Amino acid sequence: MRKSLTLYEILALYIGLPEGNKSYTNAFWLNNLAWPPNLFAVCACILNETGDYVKLVSPNTTITNLYENGLNGQKLETLSNEWKKSISKREKLIGLIWEVESSIDDFVLDESSMPNSIRTIIPSVFNTLNLEKSLEQLSDDQGFVAKILFLLSLADETCAGFGVDSSDDHQGNDEYQFLLTLVDLMLHRNERQSIATFCTNRMSVLPKSLTTTVGISLQSLSHHLGFISGEVKAYWNDIKIDSINPNHSEKTYLNILIIPYPFEVHSNQFSQKVDAPHKPVGAKYFVYHPKPDVDYLIGITKGLVKKAMSSAHDVDLIVFPEATFTQTLFKDYLQGMNDFFDQLNLKQKPVFIAGVIDSVDELSCPKNSTFEEFDERNCSVLVPPHRYENEYILNNSSLMGTGYEQVKHHRWQLDHDQISTYDIGAELGSLPGEIYWEGISIENRRILFTQWEDWFSVCTLICEDLARQEPVSSAIRSIGPNLIVALLFDGPQKRFRWPGRHATTFSEEPGSSVLTVTALGMSQRSIPKKPHFILDRNTSRTVALWRDKFKGEKELVLGEGHHGIVLELTSVSVEQISADCRTDNGMALFLTYHNHFSIPSDIEIDKSENAEKGKCV
User: Fold this and answer.
1) Spatial contact of 591 and 254, defined as CB atoms under 8 Å apart
2) pTM for the whole structure
3) What per-residue confidence (pLDDT) applies to 174?
4) Of 22, 45, 42, nearest to 33 (Cα)?
């Protein structure tokens, strides 16, 4: 039995090579690597398997000379600019992709778009001799390793701004606008999963926001592209915000309205799930039943938005905790809020991020023996204005069609201490040693990254997924989203508790800012049954925690009689240096804390009638 796979076998596994001898020809590699994200993907696959990226921080003379001298006297930056121009010169041929039996692949996979200096080095790396060698043999070949490292850096540099910068930033630069068009077409072709043309079963390449600058890993090598491999499917979405504000594109601040609803959680909203065919040894299942009062919540939100605006704070983003809504009620809420926003004639409508309990449907998760026992899933949904102001989308689409949906990956486990802490023993049982698992569907792992115009990227996590970071942590570190929003159904968001500890890992690497949000009702139920515990009113009203790389942690406390917190953020641009000593020219953006304040809704709502109906307030 052989001890090592060959280069051909590794690349066949990662990117899917054609059968036969076609992939051994120079023409195959020159054409397929003519698109920079493809070259990045292939080099990243090799480095991911060999670990030879570590040689950049203790380079031999072969690596040093190649980076210092470049190819044929042309240094990396010159080559990357030449490559961009070469691709852009083919713009007049773009109409070919709409011809019968033609595609975007046929357009970008053409060796004529690759500069001569790059074209000459490709056959020296991807040839029959090397393809038949084992990775161990190639790892010992200093020339091969140096070329792979250099080509990865070159591909990354050529893709600066891919998927991130807005074409509005490049008015008059037709060359760059054309490249952005190609990237958008490629994302559409790959269902938002990759900007490379290779199959996405084993790997994908997506735009990147932040570079890991602590330690040394594959993520440390690139500024503009992220390599994702393994079981996690990653998606890159983008949203455009329509605004009548003439200075909209120059915004450097973000106002987040946090609504920690429900303000009360009743113990009878928890119950045992007795009909699950799956009976884990020594454990049971439970379910939580959201009971939002949509009319009450619409009224509260209206008052909070007006209150924020009265203090000269436009609301850019509204965040609700985990499991706030059911799908139907969430759509009703969005419809009501859109009508209100239309009446206000806002300069721009806010984005929503909310926790929603959704029904498993045939399209996203076909019913079978695996999922019949769990007919609900726990989701976070990011909904931009163009989705919720479209009545057809609200009335005729699934939750995934309504917004960008992230499904919870790990079930909540309740043990005896937690059941006692939240005082739900009468509903679930409270014998020492008893364990209850959240009765939700667990689906194939995926992570969604959303680019907010040309400004920053954001992803969401749901409660346990912040603590149990595998398997998505590698994807998050590869992309480096500027903002992570974690929706929780948890106790107080104190810095010493588990959300604060786990948020620290992402704020340090890759440098993402992290916001955790829980429901006031759940936080107030959190009363540990310990002899030395002293109930602190402020502690139970600490419903959110912010952490960023520069300002550290800020606990956000909801004032008595208040319904929301406005969190003001500002953006700071910082230079980052990759492991190959390239600069991003100060383009790395960090969202940092500026201020926060708690506010009441300025609309009085009579909640007694709603409470009598068993709805949450």
Assistant:
1) yes
2) 0.93
3) 62
4) 42
